[in-house]
Design brief:
By secondary structure, the chain is mainly beta. Helices cover about 15% and strands about 30% of the residues. It contains 4 helices and 34 strands. The strands form 5 sheets. A 10-stranded mixed β-sheet has the order 8-11-14-19-22-25-28-31-33-34.
């Protein structure tokens, strides 16, 4: 999430109460998760296992729970609870209303048809010649391109499934990102596409989604991807262009699928995949899977 106006290390420290390490005028441009963070943005880390990854990421401000050596050209914000303070920063600069207030500021392009039963949040942008079916829900800050079809019961912009265990309960990382649907996308019935935590969940131009698909926060689907029903894609995944995903595929968080890859039905993906055709509970090249099956049968 980029702030509307640049902030300083001091101004963020005053919001959170975190200790500054670095120039108080050090520029702060926004916040982001480790997977999507860019220069000028804050990333948070609250476990020693991930200190090095956060400190060496593209982030230039690290919200951390321990005083450590600050890398050159960066700044630290030392907090007793970075998770809490990351939420505090995000909600200070952007509020998600979740249909609690009728503020709207809705833009709709020429030729777009929206069924009266659709529910639309605030600051939503919908392009030209779109078709929004009954009972679609479109959350705050969603951006929809031209010639997009969204069928009944689909929800765009639900909260990310992102929690920590705190005092025996689950504490949510508050989602302040959005969903972007690019031009010429078709989305089937009863799909759920979660907003990014601090960035955008993106469905690329020309992609087609079947019914009952779940796409997690901050995932990026490339151009002209084809995704069949009952697929579940966790947060922060990247599907490059022209990937085909058949029914009931499950995908773990943070994986990357190369352009032109085909995932056959019920494949489980727990690692990055190069271009190819994959199958199995732990995705493997389909030809290799078949060879193994033949060997097993010959053992009988």
């Amino acid at each position: 999430m980029r702030f509307q106006q640049p902030q300083t290390l001091r101004s963020i420290s005053e919001i959170t109460g975190a200790k500054m390490i670095g120039d108080e005028n050090f520029p702060v441009l926004g916040t982001n998760e480790i997977h999507r963070v860019q220069n000028g943005e804050i990333v948070f880390v609250n476990h020693p296992k991930y200190y090095e990854k956060a400190l060496n990421s593209a982030a230039t401000i690290i919200l951390i729970d321990k005083v450590v050596d600050c890398p050159p050209g960066k700044a630290l914000l030392v907090s007793d609870d970075p998770f809490r303070d990351f939420n505090k920063i995000n909600t200070h600069f952007r509020r998600i209303f979740n249909f609690t207030k009728e503020l709207h500021d809705l833009e709709v392009g020429e030729g777009t048809q929206i069924h009266p039963s659709a529910v639309i949040g605030n600051e939503v942008r919908i392009g030209k010649n779109c078709l929004i079916f009954p009972h679609v829900v479109i959350g705050d800050y969603t951006v929809i391109g031209d010639n997009v079809t969204i069928q009944s019961g689909t929800v765009l912009g639900g909260d990310a499934f992102y929690y920590r265990k705190l005092d025996g309960n689950f504490d949510r990382l508050i989602s302040v990102g959005n969903v972007i649907i690019e031009n010429n996308v078709e989305i089937g019935n009863n799909c759920t596409i979660d907003r990014g935590v601090t960035d955008s969940t993106i469905i690329g131009e020309g992609s087609v989604l079947d019914n009952q698909i779940q796409i997690g926060h901050d995932t990026v689907i490339g151009k002209k991807c084809l995704i069949a029903s009952q697929v579940g894609i966790a947060g922060c995944c990247i599907l490059e262009d022209e990937v085909t995903v058949w029914g009931q595929v499950g995908m773990a968080s943070g994986v990357r699928i190369a352009s032109g890859t085909v995932l056959l039905g019920k494949t489980g993906v727990n690692k990055d995949l190069k271009k190819g055709t994959y199958f199995g509970p732990l995705a493997e090249e389909f030809k290799e899977f078949l060879k193994k099956e033949i060997k097993l049968k010959n053992l009988k």
